[in-house]
Amino acid sequence: MTSLDKPTDQQEQGAATDARSATEAALFEAFGGVRGMVETTVPGLLFVAIYTVKRDIHLAAIAALSLSVLLGVARLVGKDTLKHAFSGVFGVAFGAVFAMMSGDAKNFYLPGMLYSLGLAVAYIVTSLFGYPLLGLILGPVFKENLSWRTRNPGRKAAYTKASWAWGLILLAKSAILFPLYFWGDATQLGWVKVALGIPPMLLSVYLTWIFLAKAPPPIDVFAEMEAAEAAERDREKEPVTEPAAQPPRP
C-alpha cells in the first residue's frame, strides 16, 4: 500500500466522527431521545403536583392519563413510531387504573417501579449469560442483528459493559424508590420518582454511547445479504459456454 492509499488522520477522524454520530442517532431512535424521557416524566409530575394540592387520587390520575394520551397523539400526528407513541400511554394507564382501584396514590408509581426493577434484572442476567440485552435491542437498529456475538467480540464487550451499566443504575434507582413506597407517603415517593426520572436515563445513555463509540463498527449483515443476493443473480445471468468440439482422433 502506497502513502496515497493509506487513510489520512483527517479521514480517520472523519470516520470516527461518523461512527459516533451514527451511534448517537441509533440510541436516540431506540430510547425515544430527550423528548421520550420528558414524556415519561411529565405525567408523573402532573400527578404528584395535583395530588399534593388537592389530595384527590381520581383527579390526579385522570389528569396524568389525559396528558399522556395528548402526548401520544402528538407523536402520531408527527408520524412518529407507534412504539414511542403508545409506550408512555400504556405505562401511565396502568398506574392510573391501579391507583384509582386501590385508593392508594403510591400505586400510581408501582407498575413503573416494577418494570424498572425487572428491566434491571434482565440487563444483568442476560449479560451473565452472554446475550446482553442492550445488544439484542440495538443490534437491529445498527443492522448487525446478532453478528456482534460471534463475529465482533469488541462490540459484544461494549454491549455487555453498557448492559451492566443500565442494570446497576436501575437497581440503584429501585433501591431508593421501594423503601419510599413501603415506608414513605405518596407525595415523597412522587417527587423523588420525578427527580429520578431523567438523570439516570441520561447517565445510562451517555455511558452506552461512550462504550459503543470506542467499540469496532457494526457489521452490516443486511448489506452482506444484499451483496450475496446480487452476486447470485449475476452468476445466474452469466451465459453458459459450451466446450469446444474436439477433433476426431485418427
UniProtKB/TrEMBL annotation:
Keywords: Membrane, Transmembrane, Transmembrane helix. This is DUF3159 domain-containing protein. Residues 230-240 have a biased composition (Basic and acidic residues). Coiled coil: none annotated. The chain crosses the membrane at residues 57-78, 85-102, 114-142, 163-184, 190-212. It holds the Pfam family DUF3159. It comes from the Bacteria. Residues 230-250 are annotated as: Disordered.
